[in-house]
Amino acid sequence: MTKDDPHPRRRSRFAALRASFFTGLIVVAPIGLTIWLMWTMAGWVDGWVLPLVPPELRPERYIGINVRGLGVIIFLVFTVIVGWLAKGFFGRTMLRFGESIVDRLPFVRTVYSGLKQIAETVLSQSEGKFDRACMIEYPREGLKAVAFVSSTAKGEIAAKAEDDDPLISVFLPTTPNPTSGFLLFVPQSQVTYLDMSVEDAAKLIISAGLVYPQPKEAKPAKKTKVKLQSNKA
């Protein structure tokens, strides 16, 4: 290969173009996927909500085009109104009356109570959420898996544990879909708590180990100023 051989330059240009392409893909892919996901979810909600709206109230009848996301707005407004009414005396009375009717239906009662418990656990702003990430040995000794601490076991399950080593209910999600997983009861001594947040642990699981949380920087100690007070005679 001589000095005048053009192949190295061609290869370097191709490598530069390839690097630029992957850099642009890293920038464009998350934005495009986010927009696509929001667009798809809006269409899915519209498909459920808009058929319930009377045709004379739909905007496409007057402007000639289908407004994407209108069903999402209607759903949000409707949910806020229902929540506001449920806080009042009339709303609580109607809710208790409806639940009393549901309690008389065998199959419907089971489905409704289960879904209500799940909704209250996931959507409530109380201590029912996953608040800590941890590591446990799964599926065998020596292997580690990231999981979420749910709560301390109660009732009959708690009675099966050792007195000095209570059982902890842990949710072990699957990758890359963290909405499915396994409920495990692990002795507290075998649970290793992590400093990362639940959101960072979820990103780690969804990305199949490709996205690791950045280490938290230690905050510098605050310097306290001591004021010297002079004693006046």
TrEMBL record:
Protein name (record): DUF502 domain-containing protein
Organism: Thioclava sediminum
InterPro entries: COV1-like
Membrane-spanning intervals of the chain: 21-45, 65-86
Record key words, sorted: Membrane, Transmembrane, Transmembrane helix
Superkingdom of the source species: Bacteria
Pfam hit, one: DUF502
UniProt KW Transmembrane keyword: yes
